[in-house]
Amino acid sequence: MDLGVFNLVRHLTDLPVVRASIIATVVAIGFNYLGFRYFTYRDRDKSGRTKELSLFFLFSVIGLVIQNGVLYAATYGFGWDTPLQSNVFKFLGIGIATLFRFWSYRTWVFRALPAREAVQAAESFLEQRGPASRAAEPDRVG
């Protein structure tokens, strides 16, 4: 998504490369939060949404600086600013920033539930199903 929006903004506007990249990164950050919260880490602790959002955006901004710093260095430091070169360094920046974001999101933002809470959540789920639905299931010998 990030590369697609980057190239779209780059070709439809006269914005400089790094500004187009920042716009694309911000759009991707919004979609990333939705994907992480509601799909990838949907089973993680959901208490403290304000803290979660704050940490997510803090680490996302650090990732944005890493990602666009690579592009900035290539474009303005080395003068590599053809469309192909911009895409290569944008891709490289995405890769480096993704490693940082993966670690930080998993470690600090979308924290796993403590084991006691996970067991309580599972027991609560089973209680909601009721005895009739559990009686229809075959016993498992483990």
UniProtKB/TrEMBL annotation:
Keywords from the UniProt entry: Membrane, Transmembrane, Transmembrane helix
Domain GtrA/DPMS transmembrane, chain residue ranges per copy: 2-110
UniProt xrefs under InterPro entries: GtrA_CellWall_Glycosyl, GtrA_DPMS_TM
Location(s) in or outside the cell: Membrane
Gene Ontology BP terms: polysaccharide biosynthetic process
Membrane topology (UniProt): Multi-pass membrane protein
A GO cellular component entry from the record: plasma membrane
Parts of the chain that traverse the membrane: 20-41, 53-78, 84-103
Matches recorded under Pfam families: GtrA_DPMS_TM
Family: Belongs to the GtrA family.
Name by which UniProt lists this protein: GtrA/DPMS transmembrane domain-containing protein
Organism the protein comes from: Streptomyces purpureus
